[in-house]
UniProtKB/TrEMBL annotation:
GO molecular function: copper ion binding
Name of the protein described by the UniProt record: CopC domain-containing protein
A Pfam family the protein falls into: CopC
Domain CopC: 25-120
Keyword Protein biosynthesis: no
Keywords carried by this UniProt record: Copper, Metal-binding, Periplasm, Signal
Location within or outside the cell: Periplasm
The organism of origin for this protein: Rhizobium paranaense
Endpoints of the signal sequence: 1-24
Taxonomic superkingdom: Bacteria
Taxonomy of the source species: Bacteria, Pseudomonadati, Pseudomonadota, Alphaproteobacteria, Hyphomicrobiales
Biological process per Gene Ontology, one example term: response to copper ion
């Protein structure tokens, strides 16, 4: 009976360990400017912090302005152990609400995406 309990315990530990890997995805933890925030000046960059490292080649953002025009951005970079996606803003953002659509491929191969908004109000 002890062998059965030990085998069951080992199987349960392995199952829990593998399920943790199966659910590993790069989730957006925070952003600067923050979701639903109002800022007084145009940001020079957008910083998106994820729960795990990203693959830069398959991660990025698109920003659209109040007129639905796509905002010109610079080349993205990864920072802080590849968990922060930093994207320069090429020009000055005018007043209005902006939508950031992001997509990320975590270092372990899982895809996630989402969006958030922020408002520039000088």
């Amino acid at each position: 009976m002890t062998k059965t309990i030990t085998r069951f315990s080992l199987a349960a530990i392995l199952a829990l360990g593998l399920s943790g890997q199966a659910f590993a995805h790069a989730h957006l933890n925070s952003a600067t400017p923050a979701d639903k925030s109002t800022i007084k000046a145009s940001p020079s960059e957008l910083d998106l912090t994820f729960s795990e490292g990203l693959n830069l080649k398959f991660s990025g953002i698109k920003v659209t302005g109040p007129d639905k025009a796509v905002v010109k951005l610079g080349d993205p970079m990864l920072m802080q152990n590849d968990t922060v996606l930093m994207v320069p803003v090429s020009g000055t953002l005018g007043a209005g609400t902006y939508t950031v659509e992001w997509h990320a491929l975590s270092a372990d191969g899982h895809k996630t995406n989402g969006s958030y908004t922020f408002t520039v109000k000088p």
